[in-house]
Each structure stands twice: as structure tokens, then as C-alpha cells.
UniProtKB/TrEMBL annotation:
Coiled coil: none annotated. InterPro entries: DUF484 (IPR007435), GAF-like_dom_sf (IPR029016). This is DUF484 family protein. The lineage of its organism: Bacteria, Pseudomonadati, Pseudomonadota, Alphaproteobacteria, Sneathiellales.
Length: 241
């Protein structure tokens, strides 16, 4: 019977004096759920490489190896989930800050300024524009407001959705103006603003390719779009003093 030394093990921890392998074995037999409750220990077990005549040890080795891989995969999955949760919380905070900003507008011009000049920093992207097709409602020239030819917005590949995410964006001076060469990925949000009597959308541009992609959740962008179109509708309905 092998006695476990009371000297420091390779891990640097003190083993209990006089504790034998038989003691450990018997304790594990008496506590069969120990490894279930401490599954991370399975990753430190060295499975036996020899095979007995009846193949029992080989099966044990296979099972332990499989459990080790499963524990490693689950740990990695948990880490990915935690990171995704942190990223989602950060995105949610950015969207909430942006909504507070646009709700603080005091005029149509101020709203467009906040949308196109302040929100890029809050949302950590490079450029935002408000795109409105030509229509009967006159709009003053404002930085960040892009006027499009009638029918331009409908030509985008929306596929029945109100949000379009493109990992690789075509260069478009019509949408991004002087920032067209900067934008490599974009997100387009259609706006429903009856008072405009014209199609409209908000365009988000990033210099990072694949910053926006089709696998991304769009709930927060959709909510932000609803707030934007409501604010724009409200300011268009305001009667001049």
C-alpha cells in the first residue's frame, strides 16, 4: 500500500500525514458524488494508458478523457457567455445614453445635430447620417442630413426588414457624404415618419469591416430607431412660434 508523503506535493500544498491511497479510495467510495460536485478536478486527472486483458481500464480512460474534454468545453462556453453578457450590457448602456441625448433636443436642428454629431461618440462608431428622400416637405441644410433621390431607400436589400446590417458596405457618397471612404461596414434603419411624406432612414457607419453583420441581435437598434422616428415626427409637427 502506498503512503502519500507528508512533504509538499508538486502543487505546493501539504498532504495530510499518514494519508494513504487506500484512505483516499475508500473516502471516494463513501462519497460517490464528490467528482460530480467538483467536476473541474476531472481536468487534472491523468487517465491510465495501459489496457487490461478485459479492456476495463481502457474504457475508464476513454470516459475520463471524454469528461475532461466536456468540462474544458463547458468552461470555455461559460467564459464566452460571460463575455457576451458584458458586451450586451455595454451596448445597452450606450443605447440608453443615446436615447437620453436625443430626448434632450430643443429643436429639429438640435435633434439632427445630436443624432449626427454626438451619437457617434456615444455609440462608439465613426459616422451617423439622417437620410431623407426628396419630398414636398422643405428641410434646411444641416450637417449630417443627406438628401436622397426618390426611390433610393427602397432599392436597398431590406428583405422585408426595417434594419439592414452589412459587414462590407459599398462606398456611398449619397448616404455618408464626405465620410464615404471611411465607412467599411454599415447599419441602416428605416424610419416611418408620416409628416415627412418621404422615405427616411438613419445610417450608421464604421471604419471596421464586419463591425455590423447579420448574426447580430437588432432589438436595441430597433428600439433606438423607434425613438428617433418619434422624435423626428414630433419636431416636424411643431408649429413655428
Amino acid at each position: 500500500m502506498t503512503e502519500i508523503s507528508d512533504k509538499k506535493a508538486s502543487t505546493g500544498r501539504e498532504a495530510k500525514p499518514g494519508l494513504t491511497e487506500e484512505d483516499v479510495r475508500n473516502w471516494l467510495i463513501d462519497h460517490p458524488d464528490f467528482l460530480t460536485r467538483n467536476a473541474d478536478l476531472l481536468t487534472t486527472i491523468i487517465p491510465p494508458e495501459r489496457v487490461s486483458g478485459d479492456g476495463v481500464i481502457d474504457m475508464q480512460s476513454y470516459l475520463v478523457n471524454r469528461l475532461q474534454k466536456e468540462v474544458t468545453q463547458l468552461t470555455a462556453l461559460q467564459d464566452d457567455f460571460v463575455e457576451a453578457a458584458r458586451t450586451n450590457m455595454h451596448t445597452q448602456d450606450m443605447v440608453h445614453a443615446s436615447i437620453q441625448a436625443v430626448l434632450g433636443a430643443t429643436s429639429l436642428a438640435h435633434f439632427v445635430h445630436i443624432l449626427t454629431q454626438d451619437l457617434p461618440e456615444l455609440l462608439e462608431i465613426d459616422v451617423i447620417t439622417l437620410c431623407v428622400e426628396d419630398g414636398p416637405i422643405p428641410l434646411p441644410d444641416m450637417t449630417g442630413l443627406q438628401r436622397l433621390k426618390e426611390g433610393s431607400i427602397d432599392r436597398a436589400p431590406w428583405r422585408g426588414h426595417a434594419i439592414l446590417l452589412r459587414p462590407v458596405a459599398p462606398k456611398s457618397k449619397a448616404i455618408f457624404g464626405p465620410a464615404k471612404d471611411l465607412v467599411h461596414s454599415d447599419a441602416l434603419i428605416r424610419l416611418d415618419v408620416p409628416s415627412l411624406h418621404a422615405q427616411a432612414m438613419v445610417a450608421f457607419g464604421s471604419r471596421q469591416e464586419a463591425h455590423f453583420h447579420e448574426d447580430q441581435a437588432t432589438d436595441l437598434l430597433r428600439f433606438l430607431g423607434i425613438v428617433m422616428q418619434s422624435c423626428l415626427q414630433m419636431w416636424l409637427e411643431q408649429k413655428p412660434a
